Amino acid sequence: MNIISKFRCISCGREYNIKDMIFRCACGDLLEVIHDFSKLKRKPGEWKRLFEENMDKVAFLRYKDLILPSLPDDKVITLDEGDTPLYKANNRLGKFFGIKRLYFKHEGMNPTLSFKDRGMVAGVSWANYFGVKDVACASTGDTSAAMAAYAAYSEKIRGIVLLPKGKISVEQLSQPISFGTTTLGLETDFDGCMQIVKELTAKHPIYLLNSMNPIRIEGQKAIGIEMIHQLDWEVPDWIVVPVGNAGNISAIGKGIREMYELGIISKKPRLAGVQSSSACPLYNSYTKGWSDLEPVKAEKTVASAIQIGNPVSFRKAVRELRYFNGVVEKADEKEIMDCKAFVERNGIPLCPNSAVAAAGALKLRNKNIIKEGESVVIVLTAHSTKFSHAVINYHTDSTNKYANLPIYIKPTLSEVEKTLNLKQ
Ligand SMILES: *Cc1c(COP(=O)(O)O)cnc(C)c1O
Ligand SMILES: [Zn+2]
After folding, report:
1. What average pLDDT score do residues 282-304 get?
2. What pLDDT does 2 receive?
3. Whose CA is closest to 253, among 319, 312, 315?
4. Which of 57, 233, 312, 421 is least crowded, fewest Cβ atoms below 10 Å from its Cβ?
5. pTM for the complete prediction?
6. Minimum CA distance residue for ligand 1 atom 1
7. Tens of pLDDT, residues 404-419
8. Which domains does the chain have, with CATH numbers?
């Protein structure tokens, strides 16, 4: 293995070999991957040429030299994640948001319908490279779905998911069990599962694929890299991301920061993180001039994937937000669901968590923080269909602004014609 990468602690700076199967520094804080790209001796134009030459490869391999240069290609377990659509907003959406150059980067169009696949192609491939037989996570949602799929496809890695028994919706349970993952329901809450999975992976050679895993963060960098490549290296003025554990905004920031430092791009976008008002510790910190994290009790929110009161990657996120002159916004339940409904009326199926980012972009534009004429990319993190209960709840309540209630009628042609205002 070439030694261009290493782990480094984000607080005390202590360094570790990237081959070490560790997730936290001796001091207790998170690790991140540091690459010495200078060893690759590539000029900015050569990087871009490499990406063009690799257009026929899956995104993870195309950008691999920026993501995990130490990982051999033949160890990669991919389900053709990435190359997700970058939708240009239609006129109606442009008007609604008051933004002319508006795009949606739709990460819900990944194999398991969320951006978590971007991290898992890296994480499960890394486990495969080291010959690990088991991977595990405590998760109730998209993380377990993605881990389960990649482990299943590998044919040789067993996925182990720890879930709080009785606290999981049908949708959240369906993906890991369908992929054949060993799915353990524990009579505890999410934190209880997390505690046990940490102990389990510390004691046995089981690779932990929860959010603190720094390799997953490297994989998620591809979202930002690919987005800017799709824009023909024209960096947008703003990138707007929903924030829960804050790993994704850290990853997108890290990838773009590294591209900027390598000279692949020559402009920095501004980053906007958006949280649900029910769980917004990062927002609270921002409004107090990036004060230290004060964990909150995350209240119930329709954006269940970001119902997190103590974000693991808080410090990484703050670092990237500061680097990119970033802001943090929040959105309440009504703002989230009305914005989701309006965007979906235009044919773009986004989940409630993604709608948090969309609602935040709308608010930032209305406050004139996003200025007239600026270009904006909103990152959609999962597909609407993973959270269909939210859709049904919204549309079957006629008091909601954009509710579209099903119309139940008698099974005759004339009834259908009458309902559609057609001549009989
Ligand atoms: C995991 C997840 C998020 C939150 O990402 P973080 O890295 O925890 O901030 C947002 N949306 C969806 C759909 C997710 O699955
Ligand atoms: Zn440390």
Report:
1. 95
2. 56
3. 319
4. 421
5. 0.97
6. 305
7. 999 999 999 999 999 9
8. 86-113+217-395 (3.40.50.1100)
